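Sat 14:20. Reprocessing the chain from the morning session after the first attempt stalled halfway. Input below, unchanged.
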Amino acid sequence: MGVRLMVVDDHRLLAEALASALKLRGHRVLAAAAPAAGAAELVIARAPEVCLLGTATPAEPGIFDPVVKIKRERPQVAVLVLGPVPSPRGIAAAFAAGACGYVRHDERIEGVERAIMKARAGEAAVAPALLQGAFAELLNPAAQPDDEGQRLLQMLTPREVEVLVRVADGEDTRVIAAGMGIAPSTARTHVQRVLMKLGVGSRLEAAALAARTGLLERAGSVRGDERP
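Finished this time. Tokens:
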């Protein structure tokens, strides 16, 4: 049975070519679009079973914000990121945002279709080679420069710094929300954004990265400076 899907990519020719190939294979393509902005709103409005969401820069901070928005408004939509060969952190950021898979731009149509079927079935859809690269990075992380903690800290807002410190302290979403006087859904969004910006896939990885780069010590001093 065909899948109800959308193809959203800034490269119109790629979006339309992929949509045409998928239609020929029996899938129902609701739209093949190339919006510079408004991708999330388009997907939320059409509510496909699967969305192929293109990106040219998977490592750029905030690039997966549309995925976060789609999953918040339409959690039943399976989002597959379509992009270039990513870094392990790029893959982690995509999954942290709520994507269920990552498909390379140069993947054959058969591979794209397999990923779509896995996504609709609720399975993770990512090539084994990409997973191996992610595991290799986690097991043997590249040495971080001395100023890595400061660079990461500058990527976070003051509120996200507080969330990171609380995550490192082992607080769950409800405790974070209560401690910061915000709704649990807002706290969850803050946590997702912190994971995306740090390029990690879990709270444990975020805490480990923060500790390894000295980010926690810098964050603690920043929070201390803000106290009256």
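The mean pLDDT is 84.
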